[in-house]
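quick q for whoever's on today - can somebody do inverse folding on this one?? i tried earlier but teh output was garbage lol. tokens:
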């Protein structure tokens, strides 16, 4: 009898634990890197120029992903996805060790933070397509939407624990967040080694590597449902990047300090985790496209209210609602993409999706930082939320496939046994 829940699958349990541990480590590092960049910059710069440094950090993390997108997607479809994830986690261990050593000796500088941020961008560039393409290989197709929700719970739970953990540990000693992150990455690496061989589909079509890389872009461009879902996230989150300004709000607007910053960073993940937990046990079945579009509108509205708020509980509530709406959209989008993409294309399509997601996150941080430097952080956040709502209205008209998507029911794709080969 096939399993009815992803946790009934041994390899998925290891995958889930690995993702949770690595996400906690990543977010603990990210929160501290952002705080250190802004804090160091504020010692010699005014608020606007220090906010600009936060924007530059986003650019530094995005550039490796942009440059490596075609390579990482092709690699995820050609090489055992477990090996790619393991190598990426090992690179993150190195990054944590470098920043931990600098913090221990009190020699952390802006160039060092920017350099490590770029290396983290490389690790994420390879890990994203490999991990997203690996999950569908671990569970039966029928429970994949639940697996996506459970995987999101791992990520969002890590996003809750990571920022708070990083903020609290940093308040005790600057090196502690990086030391703990190293241990979490080591646990994640161990779990990845426990995952057994996975089925993999041979790449069809042209045998030219460059042509195979470009095929992922062509697939996304020609599948309007996938293109609309990915691009909606890109532009909505690109504009509504409130989280990029959280160090500014924590330090200079809400006056909450590094501990308050941890709370602010964790709040969106609280809402997202509750939403993902709901979908893990009550999968969405009807009118998925319209509900996804409505969730993005709620995301933009919550961003606007957060920008105007000067009351910490209201700010936390807005961020939690923002996170819940974003998780709703992510759940629908990822389910549609994974179930409408052949296994042999999942790495390359995942790389394109990772590029769009990173563009929305890292470039969203850059856009927010640059805009904040010009018109102030509050106006940048409020304007971004309004922009997210406008984008949703435009996408409703330009991509009718989204609002007409009634369920996740996918077409039959090439997963037949004759096309499968075993990864070793």
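ok took a stab at it. sequence:
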């Amino acid at each position: 009898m096939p399993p009815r829940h992803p946790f009934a699958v041994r390899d998925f349990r290891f995958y889930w634990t690995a993702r949770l541990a690595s996400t906690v480590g990543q977010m603990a590092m990210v929160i501290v890197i952002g705080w250190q960049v802004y804090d160091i910059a504020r010692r010699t710069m005014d608020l606007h120029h220090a906010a600009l440094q936060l924007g530059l950090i986003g650019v530094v993390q995005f550039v490796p992903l942009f440059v490596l997108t075609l390579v990482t997607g092709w690699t995820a479809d050609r090489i055992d996805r477990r090996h790619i994830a393991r190598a990426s986690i090992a690179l993150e261990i190195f990054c944590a060790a470098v920043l931990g050593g600098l913090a221990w000796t009190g020699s952390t500088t802006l160039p060092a933070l920017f350099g490590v941020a770029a290396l983290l961008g490389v690790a994420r560039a390879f890990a994203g397509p490999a991990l997203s393409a690996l999950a569908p290989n671990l569970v039966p197709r029928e429970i994949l939407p639940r697996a996506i929700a459970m995987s999101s719970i791992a990520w969002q739970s890590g996003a809750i624990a990571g920022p708070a953990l990083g903020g609290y540990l940093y308040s005790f000693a600057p090196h502690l967040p990086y030391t703990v992150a190293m241990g979490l990455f080591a646990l994640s690496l161990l779990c990845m080694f426990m995952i057994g061989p996975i089925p993999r589909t041979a790449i069809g079509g042209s045998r030219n590597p460059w042509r195979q890389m470009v095929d992922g872009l062509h697939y996304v461009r020609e599948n309007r449902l996938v293109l609309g879902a990915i691009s909606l996230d890109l532009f909505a989150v690109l504009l509504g990047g409130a989280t990029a300004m959280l160090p500014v709000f924590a330090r200079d607007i809400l006056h909450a300090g590094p501990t308050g910053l941890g709370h602010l960073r964790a709040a969106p993940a609280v809402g997202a985790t509750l939403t993902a937990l709901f979908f893990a046990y009550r999968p969405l079945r009807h009118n998925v496209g319209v509900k996804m579009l409505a969730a993005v509108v709620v995301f933009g509205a919550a961003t606007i209210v957060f920008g105007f708020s000067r009351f910490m509980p209201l700010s936390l509530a807005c961020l939690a609602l923002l996170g819940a709406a974003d998780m709703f959209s992510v759940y629908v989008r990822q389910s549609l993409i994974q179930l409408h993409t052949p296994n042999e294309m999942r790495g390359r399509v995942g790389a394109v999706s990772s590029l769009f997601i990173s563009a929305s996150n890292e470039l969203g941080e850059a856009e927010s930082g640059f805009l904040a430097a010009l018109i102030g952080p509050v106006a940048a956040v409020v304007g971004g939320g309004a922009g997210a709502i406008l984008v949703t209205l435009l996408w409703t008209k330009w991509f009718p496939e989204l609002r007409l998507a009634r369920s996740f029911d996918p077409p039959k794709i090439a997963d037949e046994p004759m096309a499968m080969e075993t990864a070793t």
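fwiw Strands lie at 199-201, 420-422. also The longest strand covers residues 199-201. so keep that in mind when u check it
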